Amino acid sequence: MYEMRDDLIESPWGNDGKQVRQYVRPVKISAVTGDMVDRRVVSYQLYNSFNYSAFFPAERRSPIFSIGVTSPGRSEGKTTAVCNLAVALAMGTGRKTVLVDFSITRPSIHEVFGIPPGPGLAEALCGSDICVVPTQLENLFALPAGDRRLFTPNRLSAFREILFSLNNSFEFVLVDLPSAGSRAFPTIIANQLGGLLIVVRPKMTKRREVGRLFRKLHEKSVLGFVMNGVNDDDL
Predict the structure, then answer these.
(1) Is the CB of residue 142 less than 8 Å from the CB of residue 135?
(2) Mean of pLDDT values over 142-158
């Protein structure tokens, strides 16, 4: 179990650009460990293709620690992308990485890594412990979605506190967000993250959907795009 902290420390997230005091909640490591990795989703070919040096930009003093992954529409492969990116960061950099399932309506991180579906993010938003589960892969942990019936708009404000607490226990926090076109997409939360990756798919992603996405997000927060499902004919 990581050291449990319940102190107040300085946070850089003030809306006025000033530092504010932020409560750090305990992060507990589950005694249960993931019992499998779905190789239909996570594969050497996919996670070895990520150029994670993009998260260590030379002009920044520190790496980008919290990264959200979304897509303009559904079925474009964002969960596949975020799972493989998490594996790439954990195995490629040797840094402790946690993958958070914020895909409220269609959670699947627990299925990919063979962990219990809860307790997870939903329970943490309601004030319960932030309980993450080790996967079978070294340095990679997951915070499953939990009981999605507990997700309500008035609970989402607690995510900033959860994110800040995770950033104090892990070196990378990856968040599997809902697609930007869905009603469940948390725009405010997406804009609180250190950066965003947008997953698109040839012959599926529509230009108008990308435009709608940029009307929701701060353009400067977008780190780049991941093109999924590319065939030779698409190049």
Answers:
(1) yes
(2) 90
Question: Looking at 100-104, 132-136, 211-215, which range is the least confident one?
Answer: 211-215
Place of tokens 């967000």: 177
Q: Would you list the domain boundaries of the chain?
A: 31-51+62-229
Q: Which amino acid is at 27?
A: V
Q: Whole-model pTM?
A: 0.84
User: What stretches of 168-228 show up as alpha helix (H) in DSSP?
Assistant: 187-190, 207-216
Q: Where are the beta strands (DSSP E) in 43-184?
A: 66-70, 97-101, 130-134, 140-143, 172-176
Residue whose pair of structure tokens reads 């996919």 in the numeric block: 46
Q: Which CATH class is domain 31-51+62-229?
A: alpha beta
- What's the rounded mean pLDDT across residues 44-52? 74
Q: Which residues contact 3 (CB under 8 A, 6 or more apart)?
A: none
Q: Where does residue 122 fall: left (phi above 0), alpha (psi -120 to 50 degrees), or beta otherwise?
A: alpha
Side-chain half-sphere exposure of 155, counting CA atoms within 13 A: 16
| Sequence-separated (6 or more) residues with CB below 8 Å from residue 203 | 234
Residue with tokens 């929701």: 216
Q: Among residues 53, 137, 112, 47, which one has the least CA distance to residue 85?
A: 47
